[in-house]
Amino acid sequence: MTNLNMDVAMEFTEKLFGYLEGAVVSSLVYLGDALGLYKAMQDAGPLTSHELAAKSGLNERWVREWLRNQGAAGLIEYRGDDRFELTAEQSAVLADEENSVLFSAGGFESMPSMGFTLEPLKESFRTGIGLPYDAQGESGNHAVARMLAPWFRHMLVPMILPALDGVVGRLESGAKVADVGCGAGIAGIATRPPASRMNLINLCACSFSSSAC
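Given the sequence above, the corresponding structure tokens read:
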């Protein structure tokens, strides 16, 4: 411990604890998505913990702690008098899964799978043998599907495919399409070419049990 620069060490400590703080906040984003708290706050204006608990059917004490964490993290807005609000911009990212290309909260559904893959990863570090994609379980696969689905729905179909010369015409007239590495198949389902045959191919069995589409 000789020649230790305490200023540098303290700065590094704060940086490390910042990552831990991020993990805690990420876990509560997962809970906010899974429990429907963000959706309950969408377009609702400033709410108290009692009001949000009533709207979501959850315990007020726990909702209060969740609101305070999210407010401190800057993910929702504190409006004074113990009221918190999800703004339109925050709703687009955290709540509006069907209509917003920016929706990202679904990706946090992977939080549980990240936890239960840590123990098997110890053995991977010892042997050099990695984990199969299925190791992240259904929640991990569902998280990937939900994270990518807005892009498929709002960018791939209305913007990307029409920009590719002749692709939309071939799909409409009838084509055989192979989606290799299709995940939950959301891209193929979003495209929905009635005259075409979509072949969805994926190595991960969990993906096809996803209901994200």
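The mean pLDDT is 89. Try to locate this feature in the token string yourself.
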